[in-house]
From TrEMBL:
Native source species: Bizionia gelidisalsuginis
Functional note: E1 component of the 2-oxoglutarate dehydrogenase (OGDH) complex which catalyzes the decarboxylation of 2-oxoglutarate, the first step in the conversion of 2-oxoglutarate to succinyl-CoA and CO(2).
PANTHER family: 2-OXOADIPATE DEHYDROGENASE COMPLEX COMPONENT E1 (PTHR23152:SF4), 2-OXOGLUTARATE DEHYDROGENASE (PTHR23152)
EC class: oxidoreductase
Cofactor(s) the protein requires to work: thiamine diphosphate
Entries under CDD domains matching the protein: TPP_E1_OGDC_like
Family (UniProt): Belongs to the alpha-ketoglutarate dehydrogenase family.
Protein name: oxoglutarate dehydrogenase (succinyl-transferring)
Domain Transketolase-like pyrimidine-binding, first and last residues per copy: 577-770
Family annotation (SMART domains): Transket_pyr
Amino acid sequence: MDKYSFLNAAHTAYFADLYDQYLENPDSVEPSWRAFFQGYDFGSENYGMEGKAVESVSTKIPEHVLKEFQVLNLIHGYRTRGHLFTKTNPVRERRKYAPTLGIEHFGLSPSDLETSFDAGEMLGYGGPQTLLKIIEHLEQVYCHSIGVEYMYIRRPEELKWIQDKLNVGNNQPKFSNDEKKHILKKLNEAVSFETFLHTKYVGQKRFSLEGGETLIPALDAVIDKAAEYGVKEFVMGMSHRGRLSTLTNIFGKSAKDIFNEFDGKDYEEKVFDGDVKYHLGWTSHRESKSGKEIYLTIAPNPSHLETVGAVVEGIVRAKQDRSYKDDFSKVLPIIVHGDAAIAGQGLVYELIQMAQLDGYKTNGTIHIVINNQIGFTTNYLDARSSTYCTDVGKVTLSPVLHVNADDAEAVVHATLFALDFRMKFKRDVFIDLLGYRKYGHNEGDEPRFTQPKLYKAIAKHDNPRDIYTAKLKASGLIDDNYVKNLEKIYKDALEEKLVDSRKEDKTVITPFMHETWKDFERVDEHKMMETVDTTTSIEKLTEITKVISNLPKDKKFIRKIERLIQSRQKMFDENRLDWSMAEHLAYGTLLDEGYDVRISGQDVERGTFSHRHAVVKVEDSEEEILLLNQLNDKQGHFYIYNSLLSEYGVVGFDYGYAMASPNTLTIWEAQFGDFSNGAQVMLDQYISAAEDKWKTQNGLVMLLPHGYEGQGAEHSSGRMERYLQLCAKDNMYVADCTTPENMFHLLRRQMKSNFRKPLIIFTPKSLLRHPKCVSTVESFANGSFKTLIDDENSDVNKIKTLVLLTGKFYYDLDEERENLKRDDVALVRIEQLFPLPIKAIKAILSKYKNADDIVWAQEEPKNMGAYSHMLMHLDDARNFRLASRRPYGAPAAGSAVRSKARHKEVIDFVFDKTKNNQR
């Protein structure tokens, strides 16, 4: 039996906390409670003073004290369920919930309304209050234009802070006259901007903010107040709804530029394809009202819902790591969601689960939902099973504020509340801005097809500016002409910008985060093919090897890990460097040169195949040792994090990180190559296309383990064909290395170039410890990345069969060539698949002029791997003999016996064209 079991469950928590507080310090509780607690020992073994049973204790509680508990129960009811009975919906009747907050449900009656209760003290009053006053207070705090969900939070200090904050002023806005006029000014900008576009560009899609215009004064207020908190940078992500207004009225993008985009003019650059106007990013400086300079960034985004949220968090973390290590809170992420999107897109859950993880936290995000109560044409009742679209926020026990978007002051008040919470507790907070969408999904849509009742109500409904104007006029703050003048001044300025835009023939798109990228050049495929100096000194390699081969002597480690770490020095001394040494020495030399390195993904610290061991755990304490951070005092920082079990969210985060930090080698590694399927949106919409759409360079590296070792469909293929199909002109690199030295130089090339392109590397599994997959120290120091590796040991005059291939398959074929003692076969490795080294391949074809049998060999099925890519980019490939598995729906067989047999058939066919395996 619980020691408080005689209490109603609803107020047990409050009573228990109060009693524990009394036990710790009797003087800290109110006198009436102190007198009550002094009479009973609730902590004794029998739950009652001097052995009395709980029941007898309960019967001795005075009537007025039981009434106090009932009032406490009422207060608790408002705090937990008040949000269900708010005035937050501007165009619809709220759904009905039972039981209501009527006093009869709490054992109280009208006769109690004038009775004073000590419970009033917990609402911020200086003493007891009548039940009537208590109810009035609770209605104002919890059931007016702002509904607050927070009682599920488990940290007492957060609960107390929220309750104290709500009690101040009854959770009602208190703005000065000047502040009210400024809110009206920003509201007018939001409304006037949309009506101007509506009249000048009739029927064009703009995804207007109408019905949610209060977002603009809210964002304006939060940016200004955050500057007072010391926030230096803001990074925002939002989809198309209201984006144009936000760009102009918050981020300061010239309306002239937006008009140019509406006019559909061509771009000033031929190599740039651009994107629709409501997807483009923007970066600007702004001065707060108090004169503080702040840096604003709104990330570009595709139509794919919620993807930009992960990118924003990555951008923020990169800025924090680079410039604000002392206080992450100086960079503030704001993510604007749609109601249907936040409820329906799984990425949001991934993002929220990242919020407090070491490798991904950003000290809290303000999430704002522009709640149209509709998704395209889908009613909210069909869009989710949860009560609210924001219920995913409860996963991390984040407070949620539901606000009537028609009440401008309430919206600003709630947003500032959210900012205060984020700055105080460094955690996420959600604002559900409940409004409507004036038109259909876009301005050419007919919403009455699917929501006739709703849109009848919307058609008669005043916009938020007019509602607020009426309120200020009624208070005597402004007269009839005040808003007319505001509107005229603003629209005259827009008209002037429109005239200016018509004088220009081309649209100029400013690169996103241009200051971050000003020292980097944008290049085409010809520049991508130039050799980059990636050499280093043997002395430097020696120094780094010594550091990464020696664990601290005063700490205890598992014996096996000690041997693994010490083996690095042995490999170096024996001049046989393996794949792990290629990685460690590439990272080490880059760190030594001042670059940062960030690696994240599932189990990357150790490595899925136990080859990396970049983080070593002390056996007894599990203290983490990162030897790569112990090179010297001036080195860059090495970050490596095991991610949550996410691909989509984490790839998006790391992409954003690379976008904001071009001098960080940013790597995402898949546990197995085709696990990246889970991040396909990021590959299609960002990695392969962003430079064409938004002028955004990005140097993200993706490591995708790939190779057929009989481990089934999902553990064999990195889906090489998918990436190669996305390649075009100069959008990214794709490589499939076969030697540690090439991996070493490839990683260094990524940072030593004066431009950034995404780099996809198909990495090995069995080659990580293959005795022949080793390189020399000298090749690391003085070599360079080879896009193609010739068969240097073959006699050109003897070669009858020339085999072109890529990746790990080389070692299988080389072993068979040795077994067969075939000196008439040359194996040439294509190490870079895009941009394809066509000149080098043609030179090889010319070199082996006696070869009458030219083979493209791959271990993947015919419909997978690089074969179709070779056919597309190399005309000669049409005459190659193909040696591969036959076409399959799955990449590999699950049966080890069957997989081995198919692999052997391909190998046999490489060396004997009569053994056609295409059956």
